[in-house]
Design a protein that fits this description.
Elements (H helix, E strand, L loop, with lengths): L18 H6 L23 H15 L3 H7 L33 H6 L11 H6 L13 H14 L3 H14 L1 H10 L1 H8 L3 H7 L1 H4 L6 E4 L6 H7 L7 E5 L16 H12 L8 E7 L5 H4 L14 H19 L4 E4 L4 H11 L4 E4 L6 H15 L3 H5 L5 E2 L2 E2 L25 H8 L3 E4 L9 H10 L4 E4 L11 H7 L5 E4 L6 E3 L2 E3 L2 E2 L6 H11 L6 H13 L3 H5 L10 H18 L12 H8 L10
Parallel strand pairs: 1-3, 2-3, 2-4, 4-5, 8-9, 9-10, 10-13
Antiparallel strand pairs: 6-7, 11-12
Helix pairs in contact: 7-8, 7-10, 8-9, 12-15, 13-22, 19-20, 22-25, 23-25, 25-26
The structure holds NADPH dihydro-nicotinamide-adenine-dinucleotide phosphate (NDP), pyruvic acid and magnesium ion.
Length: about 600
C-alpha cells in the first residue's frame, strides 16, 4: 500500500561506518560491515548503495589493520583523536579521501537532522545508540522541546533572526522543526514564509550557512541528471523550482531565490503532510540582472547577466527531461516565482508532458480565468460571457479592446469594449466593481481615493491586496478598514495583525496560495495523477470555500483560519483526487472509498519515532 506517512527506516537496520564511531562508540572496532545500505527514506537500498560499497572497498584497502585501530581507539594525550586516515597530516597538495559517513548511532546520530531527537532520546535509545555521555542526563518530551523553542523564538525581536533560528532548527532536528511549525502555524507561517522569507532571500548571501536544496546553474549544463543524483533522497514526489527572476514582489533575486522553494516545500510538509524526504527545492541559476547582487561580494550565484532565448530554454528543457528520467512521470513540479515572460511559456510547454503547475500565474491572471470558469460552471453561461464580468488593469491602465494589438497574449482575452482609462482610480469609478484584487507587486496602489470609491458603491467592498511581501501590499489592513469606514471585507497576501477601528476589532484574512498548493499536491500524489487540470484547481478552491464557516463570514473573514490547515488540506486533497479519478488522470487504483480519510492517513506526522 502506498503510504506517505513517515519512514520505516530504523537506525539498527542500517550499518554505518564513521571515523567518529570508531573512536566514540566501539573501543574495539569490528570490521566494517560487508553490506552497506544507502540510507533512503524507506530504508531500502537506493542507487547510492553502489557508491557506498565502493567507498567501503576503498576504505578497507586504505584502512589500517585492526591492531592499529585498537591503538587508535585510545585518545591521545591532548584529548584529540589520532589521525587514522592521514587527513590532518596530509599536506595541502596531497589528496585525501572524503569519507562517506552514514548514520548508525552515537555522535553522527545527533548530527543527522532526519533522526536527531536531542534531549528527547530516552534511556534505552541512549544505550542502544551509543549516546551515553553525549547528552546531559535529562530526558525531555518533544512537547517540552516545542515549548522551549517557542519561548526562545519569541525572544528574538528581529523577524530575520527568527527565520534563521527556524532554518537552524530544520538543519538540526527536522521533526522538531515540523512539530513547531504545525503546532504554531499562525505564528510561524510569517517567519518561514511571506513576509520574512522575502527579506531572507534579499540577504541570502550574507546569512548563508548550510546549503539547502539543489542549485542547478549554467555550469551544470549537460550534466543535470548527474546533479539530481547527488541529492541524497531518491524518492522525490514534489519539486518546487524557481529561476529567481520574480521573487514575491521583490523582483530579480537570482540564485538567492532559493529561500522560496525551501519555504514552499516546508509548507507542503507542514500544511499538506508530504514527507520532507519526498520534497526537493531547486533553484535554476541562469544569472541575474540585479546590479546590486552582481556587485555584492557575498552574492552566491553566477555573476553574469541572465541567459535568455535558446540558452535559457535548453537548460530548462534539460532540467525537465532529467526530472522525468530520474523520478518518473508522477513527480509534481511546481514552477515558482518565474517572471511571467517565461512562466506562461514554461507552463504551456510542459503542461502536456509533465505533472506541472504554477501557483503564481494560475493564481495571477489565472485568478481572472478561474473566476470566469467558476461563474461559467455555476451559471451555465459561456466562458466568453463570464470573462466580460472581469476587468483587468495593468501599468498602462484598463485593458480594453483598442489596446488588443499591443497586449501580451495572456491579457488578450480580457480586452473588453470600453474607452481607454489610464489609471486605477478612474477604472474603479468607471467599472464600479464589487471586488478589487491586487496582484501588481507594486505597494500602496490601493490609495485612499480608490478604497473610498469602492466603499461608495458597495455596502461591503471586497478588497484583496495579494502582493507580497508586506512592503508590496496594495494597502494595509488598517488603511482598508479606515478608508472604507469599517465596510471592507479585506484579505492580504501577507498577514496583518487585527486592527481596532472606532472601538471595534477587525481581523483580516490571508489570501495566499499556501491555502491551496499543499492540499493540491497531496491530492495529486495520493491519486497518482499524471497531469494537472484546471478543474482540479477549481475543485481545490471549492473545497477551501466550503471550509469557511458562517461564523467566519459574520466576522468578515472569507478564509478559514490557518490553524485548521491540515484538515483543510485533507479536504482539498480529497476533492482534487476525486477530480483526478473522474477525469481519468489518476493512476493509483482502485480509488479509495473515503478519500478524506485516506488523505489524512497519508499525511506525515512530525512526532518522534521510537528507535530499536
Ligand atoms: N497572495 C498570493 O498568493 C500571491 C501573491 N502574488 C504576488 O503578486 C504580485 C505580482 O506577481 P505577478 O503577477 O507574478 O507579477 P507580474 O510582474 O507578472 O505582474 C504584475 C502586473 O501588475 C501590473 N502592474 C504593475 N504596477 C502596476 C500599477 N502601479 N498599477 C496597475 N498595474 C500594475 C503589471 O503591469 P504590466 O503588465 O503593464 O507591467 C503586471 O500586469 C507579487 O507581489 C507576488 O508576491 C503572486 C502569486 C500569489
Ligand atoms: C505567495 C506567492 O507565491 C507569491 O507571492 O509569489
Ligand atoms: Mg510565488
Amino acid at each position: 500500500m502506498f503510504s506517505l506517512n513517515g519512514s520505516n527506516f530504523m537506525n539498527n537496520s542500517v550499518y554505518g561506518v564513521s571515523k567518529t564511531l570508531t573512536h566514540s562508540a566501539h573501543r574495539k572496532i569490528s570490521p566494517p560491515p560487508l553490506v552497506a545500505a544507502a540510507v533512503s527514506s524507506n530504508g531500502k537500498q537506493g542507487d547510492g548503495a553502489v557508491l557506498m560499497e565502493n567507498t567501503l572497498k576503498e576504505m578497507r584497502e586504505n584502512a589500517p589493520t585492526s591492531s592499529v585501530i585498537e591503538k587508535d581507539s585510545i585518545s591521545t594525550v591532548d584529548g584529540g583523536v589520532e589521525d587514522v586516515y592521514g587527513e590532518d597530516s596530509a599536506t595541502e597538495d596531497q589528496y585525501i579521501t572524503p569519507w562517506t559517513v552514514t548514520v548508525a548511532s552515537g555522535y553522527p546520530l545527533l548530527r543527522d537532522p532526519h533522526h536527531n531527537k536531542g534531549l528527547a532520546f530516552n534511556e534505552k535509545e541512549r544505550d542502544a545508540h551509543f549516546l551515553r555521555g553525549l547528552l546531559p542526563p535529562v530526558v525531555v518530551s518533544q512537547d517540552l522541546q516545542v515549548k522551549k523553542m517557542m519561548r526562545n523564538m519569541r525572544q528574538y525581536q528581529v523577524p530575520l533572526q527568527r527565520y534563521m533560528a527556524m532554518m537552524d532548527l530544520q538543519e538540526r532536528n527536522e521533526r522538531l522543526f515540523y512539530k513547531l511549525l504545525i503546532d504554531n502555524v499562525e505564528e510561524l507561517l510569517p517567519v518561514v514564509y511571506t513576509p520574512t522569507v522575502g527579506e531572507a532571500c534579499q540577504k541570502y548571501g550574507s546569512i548563508f550557512r548550510q546549503p539547502q536544496g539543489l542549485f542547478i546553474s549554467l555550469k551544470e549544463k549537460g550534466r543535470i541528471l548527474e546533479v539530481l543524483k547527488n541529492w541524497p533522497e531518491k524518492k522525490i514526489q514534489v519539486i518546487v523550482v524557481t529561476d529567481g527572476e520574480r521573487i514575491l514582489g521583490l523582483g530579480d533575486l537570482g540564485c538567492q531565490g532559493m529561500g522560496i522553494p525551501v519555504g514552499k516545500l516546508s509548507l507542503y510538509t507542514a500544511l499538506g503532510g508530504i514527507r520532507p524526504s519526498a520534497c526537493l527545492p531547486v533553484t535554476i541559476d541562469v544569472g541575474t540582472n540585479n546590479e546590486q547582487l552582481l556587485n555584492d561580494e557575498f552574492y552566491i550565484g553566477l555573476r553574469r547577466r541572465r541567459a535568455t532565448g535558446q540558452e535559457y530554454a535548453e537548460l530548462l528543457d534539460e532540467f525537465m527531461s532529467a526530472v522525468k528520467q530520474n523520478y518518473g512521470e508522477k513527480v509534481l513540479v511546481q514552477f515558482e516565482d518565474f517572471a511571467n515572460h517565461n512562466a506562461f511559456d514554461l507552463l504551456a510547454k510542459y503542461g502536456s508532458t509533465h505533472l506541472v503547475f504554477n501557483d503564481d500565474i494560475q493564481a495571477g491572471t489565472g485568478i481572472a480565468e478561474l473566476i470566469a470558469l467558476e461563474i461559467s460552471k455555476q451559471t451555465g453561461a459561456p466562458l466568453e460571457e463570464t470573462r466580460k464580468k472581469i476587468w483587468l488593469v495593468d501599468s498602462k491602465g484598463l485593458i480594453v479592446r483598442s489596446r488588443l494589438e499591443s497586449l501580451q497574449h495572456f491579457k488578450k482575452p480580457w480586452a473588453h469594449e470600453h474607452e481607454p482609462v489610464k489609471n486605477l482610480l478612474d477604472a474603479v469609478n468607471a467599472i464600479k466593481p464589487t471586488v478589487l484584487i491586487g496582484s501588481s507587486g507594486a505597494g500602496r496602489t490601493f490609495t485612499k481615493e480608490v478604497v473610498e470609491a469602492m466603499a461608495s458603491f458597495n455596502e461591503k467592498p471586497v478588497i484583496l491586496a495579494l502582493s507580497n511581501p508586506t512592503s508590496q501590499s496594495e494597502c494595509t489592513a488598517e488603511e482598508a478598514y479606515k478608508w472604507s469606514e469599517g465596510q471592507a471585507v479585506f484579505a492580504s497576501g501577507s498577514p496583518f495583525s487585527p486592527i481596532e477601528y472606532n472601538g471595534k476589532f477587525y481581523a483580516s484574512g490571508q489570501a495566499n496560495n499556501a491555502y491551496i498548493f499543499p492540499g493540491l499536491g497531496l491530492g495529486l500524489i495520493i491519486s497518482g495523477a499524471i497531469r494537472v487540470h484546471d478543474d482540479m484547481l477549481l475543485a481545490a478552491s471549492e473545497a477551501l470555500a466550503e471550509q469557511v464557516s458562517q461564523e467566519n463570514l459574520d466576522n468578515g473573514l472569507i478564509y478559514p483560519p490557518f490553524s485548521n490547515i491540515r484538515k483543510i488540506s485533507a479536504q482539498i486533497a480529497a476533492r482534487v483526487a476525486a477530480k483526478a479519478y473522474e477525469l481519468g488522470l489518476a493512476t493509483r487504483l482502485p480509488q479509495p472509498d473515503n478519500l478524506v480519510a485516506y488523505a489524512e492517513s497519508c499525511m506525515y506526522s512530525p512526532n518522534y519515532r521510537n528507535y530499536r
